Amino acid sequence: MDALLLARIQFGFTISFHIIFPALTIGLASYLVVLEALWLRTRKQAYIDLYHFWLKVFAVAFAMGVVSGIVMAYQFGTNWSNFSRFAGSITGPLLTYEVLTAFFLEAGFLGVMLFGFKRVGPGLHFVSTLAVAVGTLISATWILASNSWMQTPQGHEIINGQVVPVDWMAVIFNPSFPYRLVHMVIAAYLATALMVGGTAAWHLLRGRDGAPIRTMLSMAMWMLLAAAPLQAIVGDLHGLNTLEHQPAKLAAMEGHWERAAPGAGTPLILFGWPDMAAETTRYAVEVPRLGSLILTHSWDGEVPALKDFPPEDRPNSTIVFWTFRLMVGLGLLMIALALSGLWLRRSARLYTSRPFLRFALAMSPAGLAAILAGWYTTEIGRQPWTVYGLLRTADAVTPQHTTGQLAFTLLLFVVVYLAVFGAGTAYGLRLIAKGPVLDETRRPPSGGPGEHRQPMRPLSAAQEEGESEGSTSEEPRHGH
């Protein structure tokens, strides 16, 4: 391993941790808006019980997302200084806009959202929840605008070896931006729905049944039924955009090395092992013409092949071939789960079918796994470019770093991340395992004299063993 590969692994490692938490906060924030809106409209206790339950998980995910994001920002200056010099006039302002709009909006209303339920009116509290949810979507917009420009750059000139923006609208609304933004937001909603549905399934399998648990599962399955097929359509449109603007990436995803004869159509390779050295896909299992039909919507459409590009311009097909299939395979399982839920709902067995509940529980991490697989596909598929067609990754890295320095810092990152985020993840799972309040006569903590109060620190939101949310006591609970 050389310094360049270690720098790429280090950034890939940190972003793999980071992307999970913003995806959850995007999905959970919107879910919390829906729950609070339903409670304000119907005053059903199940909705507000679920709101307070998932609010704690949201707080943990939000905190870990902020921490992991700060580390990534510093890496642009430490490990990728040449990229910062070349494209900083584009990426710098876009990330600044994210801070000035999304982060400030989230920070301004997050405290009210977390601790203000009994301190402000219900209308203002709902506005705070809505503001935080909008902030997460604005944040995704700016981040995806920056990343999409690196994939399909436009609206710039290169002067004295540096990118200079000349049309900010073209920079932001570059050709791949709309597809990437919609694809990512839907992926966040799918990941959240699967986690919520898996949580409900886990509690039902353990015998914890009640209105909040059933509401969780029902809402998750409706979201899955709406979003999973929609994601397949958006993914198809995204693929057509990739075919137009990044044909080498598409060829690597499909494992095609040579173009099919005119009129013969391109097969779809279901499985195989792309061998970069031998320039062939070994053990290929193909479906004739299906590749042309899916990729060009034509029975005999031509699809680019890896040999159309010089070896130094080819992405690593061995990796992206399989990450792409993992993402698609998980997406098909999501659709199958949604359709199974619809069938069981019609026969009134949605909450009692143990095979279905086990399926939902097994699929609970599938959304996050699909996000990671998709992210690896799009980022490794962009190689060997950092800014597609403009700046090679080998020219973007900081040249002064040695292999030993990067190996040491990578090892340090692995140890610290596994400790810090491992503990945070374990804490979040502990919150999920406790489950929402099932006694519908209980109310959220009021914080009045002698009553249980909401903790003032986000990571203190887990209740002590033996406590239940909304419980009251004759004696003040010191230390809360």
List key phrases describing it.
480 residues; mainly alpha; 14 helices; 6 strands; single chain; two-stranded antiparallel ribbon
Can you characterise this structure?
The protein is mainly α and 480 residues long. It has one domain (19-256, 304-447). The protein is 65% helix and 6% strand. It has helices at residues 3-42, 45-78, 81-115, 122-151, 168-172, 177-205, 211-245, 247-254, 290-296, 317-346, 354-362, 366-380, 393-396, 403-434; strands at 156-159, 162-165, 268-275, 280-287, 385-387, 391-392. The strands form three sheets. It has a two-stranded antiparallel sheet. Helix 1 packs across helix 12 (366-380), helix 2 (45-78) packs parallel to helix 7 and helix 7 crosses helix 8.
Counting DSSP H or I runs of 4 or more residues, the number of helices is: 14
Q: How many domains in all?
A: 1
Record the strand order, biggest sheet.
Answer: 1-2
Low-confidence stretches: 447-452, 460-480
Strand content: 5-15%
| Average pLDDT, all residues | 86
Proportion in helices: 55-70%
Shape estimate: globular
The helix-strand sequence is: HHHHEEHHHHEEHHHHEEHH
